[in-house]
Design a protein that fits this description.
heterodimer, A: alpha/beta, 2 domains, seven-stranded mixed sheet, six-stranded mixed sheet, about 35% helix, about 20% strand, B: about 400 residues, alpha/beta, Pyruvate-ferredoxin Oxidoreductase, domain 3, two-stranded antiparallel sheet, 12 strands
């Protein structure tokens, strides 16, 4: 069965460029006219810091560019810059992100709308450059908005969306945009870059209002608080995270109107799921071999579909349950691990299990781990996972094992 | 089934070892009769600050199950005995955590006991201790505020005396023999301390307090905001800039109405406005911005916000213009400058009486010469105490006595 590939509508004044995911991020940062950016090199994130430095050097962007002495300071500096009203950008990868951990925890309660790029990288040891999602996932409980993208175009669009969402007064939470190391950060693709005029229509200036540190607005930020205050502060962040769902939907709708391209469903991409017997679920560039495999299997009459999860926080519980309930079986493919977790599954699989618990219809759910450390996901991996899902659909039973794909055994 | 709950209200840091000894002593004494117990500090007071009121607790029960009912709490809802080893705390307890100002007898059960060390009379103390809507007992051990247990000060047997007195107040939980045994076994204990416990047991003065007795001021209080009423981003508004005192002259800084700090004070500055040279040093150096600038350019220490550190006395270049006087000597936080302005002769008489009162110039900290504490502590001896031995906690007191 031949499948028609939908062309991205090109708005007449967009500029077409052949750039990497990291460069696409930097294009968006220049369009968003960021004020302060901090940098500390670690691969694969460093491609973004190089691209921004080049933009500043070439006079395409006027911003403070501060090279910190480590990731801890790197994230602290932009946190403070944001509290005085600067639009900020930061980013890291793997253990660099871990080194900033203290700053990553304090950023959401202070309601700092920092936008970061995480070039996903395996955590040491062993020292490895390839992609795993465990680095960004570490902040999943702290109040960070987390999104995974799979193309350079989506990186550009999402970076602009991220500022609009994070800097909405109803949200004021940090956003980490995850990009798979190598497959997205280091590979160049055709990207439509919009004009500054469009971006200005979409993205209002950052207004921190009564939370801005300024001599005319004397406030104390982050005082010591005891058990008689903390739970109220947590409840405030809980509400901000809930409100983010509304703001995300509004922002994508507006983005579509102004730029002529935005997914109708911001939360996840559904690929051939309408009639699917088996739905595979994954995040990031894993989608690319999976889409190829699905097209091949469709040609053989197997009705397979893909849900590529974009937003992991806030987690689109209801919509995802609705989408997955239709399938005969669901296979969740994690590019991460969670040793000792329920069923020894990856993080995404267990989140989906939790989300499905109260669903009226719960199809069998299988859990897969693959592509760790940046190993390529092969079509054989895709076929193997699909075959197992078909078997589960037939028996009607979930299997409680977690299957590792593409591991030498 | 029975249990016994006790709190020790003390000065942060200065008396923390003392409070811990008392609470551990209660549990270990009760253990002699097979009871179970816990000793803990109020977590919100921690990390402690010098002199800021803090609390420790001891709970003992017949069974472990009964004890569990009182565990995993910051503070018990009520106590059988409130112990206070610094009588200036009778004015109230304001932790650095936002618990507001709490009367010293707030948790004391009806017919329970407030046990204090003091050289004041019960009547004088009741001018400070807030009224309570239930009768209770005031038990007094004649002694000055103790720093026993803080390593820079000498042992003064306060912990032993308190435990001996408790054996009289709650004999069903703590027998005198059990207390003395526990004292002897403690790392800080000795036979002499066991003797002090017996003496305190013998000489304890108990006085019933009626509902009508006590300071009838209502302690300041506040409602904590709901989560949706609070500012977001863990931010709080700054205290606004102050205003002139009157007629466009002088300056009174705005102050936090929910956090006043005065219960931290064990001494307060008494100011001789007639000798003040208006050098501004006290006003500038005060770490709590507690001085109001008066329309005539003098500096009036606001007694709601002064925590009695003594910096103003230390920096004042004029001899005897500012004198720190023991807080027990005062019954209210009224403005000294207002009193001086109203009638200078009356003020002079009042001020001279405060400064020259030998009992009340006893200092709680910032001693003027080496050995002053030892001199002052002899008053305890005169009041029925026994001679204090040299000793450092954790070391054998006997070997120190050369």
């Amino acid at each position: 069965m031949a499948v028609e590939t939908k062309a991205v509508p090109v708005a007449s004044d967009d500029k077409e460029m052949l750039i990497s995911g990291s460069e696409a991020c930097a294009e968006a940062l220049a369009l968003a006219d960021i004020d302060v950016v901090t940098a500390y090199p670690i691969r694969p994130y460093d491609t973004v810091m190089q691209a921004i430095a080049k933009k500043i050097a070439n006079g395409n962007l006027v911003a403070e560019y501060i090279v910190a002495e480590g990731e801890h300071s790197q994230f602290e500096i932009v946190k403070h810059a944001s509290t005085v009203g600067a639009r900020v950008f930061c980013g890291s990868s793997g253990v660099g992100w871990m080194y900033a951990m203290e700053c990553l925890t304090v950023t959401p309660p202070l309601r700092v709308p920092m936008v970061c790029m995480v070039g996903n990288r395996a955590l040491d040891d062993p020292g490895a450059f390839g992609v795993e999602h465990n680095d960004a996932l570490v902040v999943r409980d702290l109040g960070w908005l987390l999104i995974w993208v799979d193309t350079a175009q989506e990186m550009l669009d999402t970076t602009l969306l991220a500022y609009r969402i994070a800097e909405d007064r109803r949200v004021f939470l940090p956003i980490a945009i995850s990009a798979d190391g190598a497959f997205l950060t280091h590979s160049q693709a055709i990207v439509q870059v919009p004009t500054r005029a469009k971006v200005d229509r979409f993205l209002p200036p950052y207004n921190r209002g009564d939370l801005q540190l300024h001599p005319d607005n004397p406030i104390t930020v982050a005082p010591q608080a005891n058990e008689d205050w903390v739970i109220e502060i947590r409840r405030q962040n809980d509400e901000a995270m809930k409100r983010a769902s509304t703001v995300i939907e509004e922002a994508y709708a507006d983005y579509g109107k102004i730029f002529g391209r935005a997914p109708e469903n911001p939360w996840f991409e559904e690929y051939m799921t309408e009639d699917a017997d088996v739905i595979l679920v994954g995040m990031g560039t894993i989608s690319l071999p999976f889409k190829v495999g699905i097209r091949n299997m469709r040609a053989q009459g197997k009705k397979v579909g893909l849900v590529r999860l974009r937003w992991f926080r806030p987690f689109p519980t209801e919509r995802l349950v609705q989408a997955l309930s239709r399938a005969g079986a669901v296979g969740v493919v994690d590019r991460d691990y969670s040793f000792g977790s329920p069923f020894n599954s990856g993080v995404v699989a267990n989140e989906i299990r939790a989300a499905m618990y109260n669903a009226d219809k719960r199809p069998p759910l299988l859990s897969f781990i693959c592509g760790l450390g940046g190993r390529e996901v092969t079509l054989e991996d895709v076929y193997k996972a699909t075959d197992m899902c078909y078997a589960a659909a037939k028996s009607g039973k979930s299997d409680t094992k977690t299957h590792w794909l593409g591991v030498r055994e | 089934m029975a249990h016994f709950t006790c709190e020790v209200v003390y000065r942060g840091i200065f008396q923390k070892n003392l409070a811990a000894r008392i609470c551990r002593g209660i549990v270990l004494s009760a253990r002699k009769a097979g009871r179970w117990g816990i000793a803990f500090g109020r977590y919100g007071d921690s990390p402690q600050r010098n002199g800021i009121p803090a609390k420790d607790f001891a709970i003992v029960a017949d069974t472990q199950e009964e004890l569990e009912q009182n565990m995993a709490r910051y503070e018990p809802k009520e106590v059988d005995v409130t112990i206070c080893v610094d009588d200036t705390l009778s004015k109230g307890v304001e932790s650095w955590a936002w618990y507001g100002l709490q009367p010293i007898n707030r948790l004391t059960l009806p017919n329970g006991t407030v046990l204090m060390t003091s050289v004041q009379t019960a009547e004088a103390l009741l001018k400070d201790i807030h009224k309570k809507e239930a009768p209770y007992n005031l038990a007094l051990i004649p002694a000055k505020a103790s720093f026993s247990g803080l390593w820079v000060f000498k042992e003064d047997h306060t912990e032993a005396r308190i435990l001996g007195a408790l054996a009289k107040i709650q004999p069903e939980f703590l027998s005198l023999d059990a207390v003395c045994q526990a004292i002897r076994e403690a790392e800080w204990g000795s036979d002499l301390k066991a003797q002090s416990a017996r003496k305190a047991h013998e000489r304890l003065q108990m006085r019933p307090v009626k509902m009508t007795e006590g300071n009838d001021e209502t302690p300041f209080s506040f409602e904590k905001p709901k989560w949706w009423e609070m500012r977001e981003g863990v931010s709080i508004p700054a205290i606004p800039v102050g205003k002139p005192m009157e007629g466009g002259k002088g300056y009174v800084p705005e102050r936090n109405p929910y956090f006043k700090k005065f219960t931290t004070r064990t001494m307060r500055p008494v100011i001789n406005f007639d000798t003040c040279v208006k050098c501004t040093l006290c006003w500038i150096q005060c770490p709590d911005s507690c001085f109001d600038v008066t329309p005539d350019g003098l500096y009036d220490a606001n007694m709601d916000s002064c925590c009695g550190c003594g910096v103003c006395e230390a920096v004042c270049p004029v001899k005897d213009c500012i004198t720190m006087v023991n807080e027990a000597s005062f019954e209210d936080n009224a403005s000294q400058w207002e009193m001086w302005r109203t009638n200078k002769d009356t003020y002079k008489t009042w001020m001279t009486a405060k400064i020259e009162d030998k009992q009340h110039v006893v200092r709680s900290h910032g001693f003027r010469f080496r050995g002053q504490y030892e001199q002052e502590i002899k008053q305890d001896l005169d009041a029925g105490g026994i001679e204090i031995t040299a000793g450092i906690p954790g070391e054998n007191a006997e070997s120190k006595k050369r």
